[in-house]
Amino acid sequence: MINGTTLIQRFERFASPQLAEKWDHVGLQVGNPDQPLRRLMTSLDVRPETVAEAIDQQVDFIFAHHPVMFHPAQNLDTRNPQNQMYADLLAHHITVYAAHTNLDTANGGMNDWLAAKMGLTNCQPLVPAGTDPITGAPVGMGRIGNFNGQMTPREFADYCRRLFGVAGLRLINHPDDGRKEIHRVAVLGGAGQDFYADAVRMGADAYVTGDVSYHFAHDMLANHLTVVDPGHHIEAVCEHQLAELFRSWQAENDGWDFEIVENQLNTDPFTFVVDGKENQ
């Protein structure tokens, strides 16, 4: 049997914390990773409902993408649901670890998973970020690659909607570009509007990212960049991919006999209302 620290050490050779953005808060969030690791849950988010599921499943380690303590607690008043969640984690001896922008940047990580899901080929980093401190290989945030389908922007948007299983999404497309074909695609999981100019510079026909704001959308239109915003939650691809990564390490290491479960809850906070009907 191993403990959480052993898993963390192995993971940080795959996605070093040094790859994280300076503003990010990656790594250990809550708990004691030195305790034995018996049952691990992979999750995009750590929310009160996720923690309730973990307690139900007798999980002792949550491996998440989004940091649970991104903003410091001002007090520990448990009338605040967030603080009660921390208390529940500690009371049930659940360790929480988060790999955020380091997983976004690492080779073989979040953005490679998204690019593979979309069927992109000959991918390269969208926003170069130097080299991996362990391997020395070039790394970067986001990916840009070739898309082999013959789709208009509207068809491509519908393809993304079905692929990522979302009830709706936002398409930003210049009126003059309705019939252009999408052949080169950039993707950046999470909120990637700040990097749309990189997608333009690298010749992307379309850019897939979340949380695009109004004024950025106008700038994207002016640059004739088709943008598909399926939301932040498409990063939930990490729940299965992290589980598969850990299973591959289990096969390589004796004594890695902990159980792995994947979060089953949809933590997307948004619901689409279409013709008076709710879709999520």
TrEMBL record:
Coiled coil: none annotated. Keywords: Metal-binding. The keyword Metal-binding applies. The keyword Isomerase does not apply. Belongs to the GTP cyclohydrolase I type 2/NIF3 family. Homohexamer. This is GTP cyclohydrolase 1 type 2 homolog.
